[in-house]
Specification:
The protein is α/β, with parallel strands linked by helices. It has helices at 3-11, 21-31, 44-51, 70-78, 95-103, 116-134, 169-180, 188-196, 204-218, and strands at 13-17, 37-41, 58-62, 86-91, 108-112, 143-146, 149-152, 157-160, 163-165, 186-187, 228-231, 235-238, 244-246. It is elongated. Bound molecules: calcium ion.
Length: 247
């Protein structure tokens, strides 16, 4: 294990919210291999108390709980300033809950019954994404690269496979927002708040039309987007691919 991995590992705190004791303990057993602290909340009230008691690096959140449910807890956490990654556990029958969960800001979900190795792969993917974002210096002159896209924040210029692309200011801000949060699903209302800011017109079709124009400029095949993909029933995300920051 590299030194950086050990350093990151030592800082990881994970909260498991799950009322089925067998599942909770099995997850805790595996998570303790890659995390410093793992705690379990077995009902919604305990979950809310613990969720706000500490800065967690990940919350694994079962949807169906005694007391407040997973969706209520997710909503409460997303009302907070600090962002904590949330991985939802859902049952096969709750398609609607899954969509709702992503809509109110969960990062990913795993459907029960799941294999521990599948869940741990998702957990590792979330850690990788969050830790690579944290290790980036917060600068306004950063250059971001995803696949063939290069985004230079200082000159506000974008190129696709070395070819410069003309974007409007809003299209640039929208693209930069996605590239700064690779893999994260944003619903249209969230994009209006984050990219348009206060004073936006509140029309979600504004987002759709900007995404379509952006795709026509950056996507090799705009009809089958490779970068900014639609998450059905929820919104959009940037395919994480090979997002890196160049010095
Ligand atoms: Ca449950």
């Amino acid at each position: 294990m590299k030194r950086n991995d050990v350093t990151a590992l030592m800082r990881r705190n994970v909260l498991i919210v799950e009322d089925e004791q067998d599942i909770a303990e099995l997850l805790a057993l595996h998570l303790r291999d890659i995390c410093e602290r793992v705690e379990i909340a077995a009902d919604g009230h305990e979950a809310l108390r613990l969720a706000f008691a500490r800065n967690w690096d990940l919350i694994i959140l079962d949807l169906c709980l005694p007391g407040p449910g997973g969706l209520d807890i997710c909503r409460a956490l997303r009302g907070e300033q600090r962002y904590v990654p949330i991985l939802m556990l859902t049952s096969k029958s709750s398609e609607l809950d899954r969509v709702l969960g992503l809509e109110i800001g969960a990062d990913d979900y795993v459907t029960k019954p799941f294999s521990v190795s599948e869940l741990m792969a998702r957990v590792r993917a979330i850690f990788r994404r969050v830790e690579s974002l944290r290790s980036r210096p917060a600068r306004n002159d950063e250059t971001l690269c995803v696949g063939g896209l290069t985004i230079d924040a200082a000159s506000r210029s974008v190129s696709v496979h070395g070819q410069p692309v003309e974007l409007t200011a809003r299209e640039f801000d929208l693209l930069r927002h996605f590239v700064r949060h690779p893999g994260r699903v944003f619903r249209r209302a969230q994009l209006l708040d984050s990219v348009w800011g206060y004073g936006h017109d509140g029309y979600e079709h504004t987002v759709n039309s900007h995404i379509n124009r952006l795709r026509s400029k950056i996507e090799p095949d705009p009809a089958h987007p490779a970068y900014i993909v639609t998450v059905w029933g929820v919104g959009y995300k940037l395919e994480p691919g090979t997002a890196v920051t160049n010095p």
